[in-house]
Design goal:
single chain, about 400 residues, TIM Barrel, Lyase, Ornithine Decarboxylase, Chain A, domain 1, binds pyridoxal-5'-phosphate
């Protein structure tokens, strides 16, 4: 916190988002929340706990290592590893009671039983073309392999939709039809997975008839819509907020430049504020001269190239900006009394300071966010997912719950 750049992660928002999605589903449908990539940048362990409080009864990660981190933090909820499994990764997963993804590659596993045995989810590629069995023959072979192995329990069968967030659901409908065909094949060979699942956030928000036994939600749990092609059926609350404190205010003359490469030249006498956040924190350099931040109740532009650790903003039109004022990079407006000086008064890193930040944040969080990750993502031609995941480990996260 000494640097003055920090993220606030609103765990109440995550809990409420999960609960709102849960409430629309059949009571028997399970909710899996994906906490891969450090919980989409928010912090996997904290998100996992909030998600479970909101009604999630499964979690997913990308790798066995991510799953082990959850177990080591004491999280007992079932965890599915979504990435491809090798025999070695399955051995490690079994030790930590993590479910694995079963694909045609498993057919090459040595004929030595895993101990302890493993729970697996058979992955069916119905059109994402990423992982899983694709042909009927592959599906039968994998199903027979599972049935023949005493060390592999078929906990689930799943597919992943490539275009559930698109304007039309034509592609997703085709995938679901193919999925149902493949489920029929599994049943014919005598394999009856306990949990059938296909829906990501977009599908869970749009098609209750695609919920099967479980939905796998990610982005919606973090409070963002998967795309702007449809309006989510529940109101989602963004959980991630990024703040920093101004470290310097300086006036430059017309014609003087700002930052590396001198990509901004002042068209007038300009008041420039320096903010200690940069691309190494996850604020992309491609936002140089392209985005806005919020300071003292006003939206102001980022000027010059975003540096690794700092960026500059034009505060000419903001009255009385000074060193220590709080800047909102994205999320809810920083409360008006958030200044570096007030934080120091409470004592950086103290419980008192954290409590003050949390309490005052809750008041701001009643309003709509002033700067959304969707806006920044649109400027960059990317998606909110990428910006969340980019938030660097060096940015301290303050958890509000
Ligand atoms: C296999 C799988 N299921 C579910 C999800 C969750 O998707 P979303 O974040 O769009 O809800 C992901 C995310 O990438 C995924 O890879």
């Amino acid at each position: 916190m000494y640097r003055g750049t920090f993220a606030v992660v609103d765990l109440d928002a995550i809990r409420e988002n999960v609960a709102a999605i849960r409430a629309r589903l059949a009571p028997t449908t399970r909710v899996l929340v994906t906490v891969k990539a450090n919980g989409y940048g928010h912090g996997a362990v904290e998100v996992a706990r909030a998600a479970v409080q909101g009604g999630a009864s499964y979690l997913a990660v990308a790798s066995v290592e991510e799953g082990i981190a959850l177990r080591e933090a004491g999280i007992q909820t079932p965890v599915l590893v979504l990435g491809a499994s090798t025999y070695e990764s399955a051995m490690a997963a079994a030790k930590f009671q993590l479910d694995v993804t079963l694909t045609e590659d498993c057919l090459d596993w040595p004929d030595v039983p895993l101990s302890p045995p493993i729970k697996g989810h058979l992955k069916i590629d119905t059109g994402m073309t990423r992982l899983g069995v694709r042909t009927n023959e592959e599906c039968v072979r994998l199903a027979q392999w599972i049935l023949a192995r005493s060390d592999v329990e078929c906990q689930g069968a799943f597919t992943h939709l490539a275009c559930a967030d698109a304007e039309t659901l034509h592609h997703a409908e085709q995938q679901i039809r193919r999925f149902q065909e493949m489920l029929g094949i599994l049943s014919n060979v005598g394999l009856h997975p306990k949990l059938v699942h296909a829906a990501n956030s977009a599908a869970a928000l749009r098609r209750l008839d695609w919920q099967f036994d479980m939905v796998r939600i990610g982005i919606s749990a973090y409070g963002y819509a998967p795309s702007d092609a449809f309006v989510p059926s529940v109101s989602l609350k963004p959980a991630l907020n990024l703040y920093s404190f101004v470290t310097r205010v300086h006036t430059i003359q017309t014609g003087e430049s700002v930052g590396y490469g001198a990509t901004f030249t002042a068209p007038r006498v300009t008041k420039v504020a320096t903010v200690p956040v940069g691309y190494a924190d996850g604020y992309p350099r491609r936002l140089s001269n392209q985005s806005f931040v919020w300071v003292k109740g006003q939206r102001v532009p980022v000027i010059g190239n975003v540096c690794m650790d700092q960026l500059m903003i034009d505060v000419t039109d903001v009255d009385e900006v000074s060193t220590g004022d709080c800047v909102t990079l994205y999320g809810h407006r920083a409360p008006s009394d958030w200044t570096r000086q007030n934080l120091s008064h409470y004592g950086i890193g103290t419980d008192e300071a954290l409590e003050w930040l949390r309490t005052t944040f809750r008041e701001s969080a009643r309003e709509e966010p002033v700067l959304s990750l969707d806006e920044l993502a649109n400027r960059l031609g990317t998606i909110s997912y990428e910006l969340m995941c980019a938030l660097s480990p060096r940015v301290p996260r303050i958890y509000v719950k």
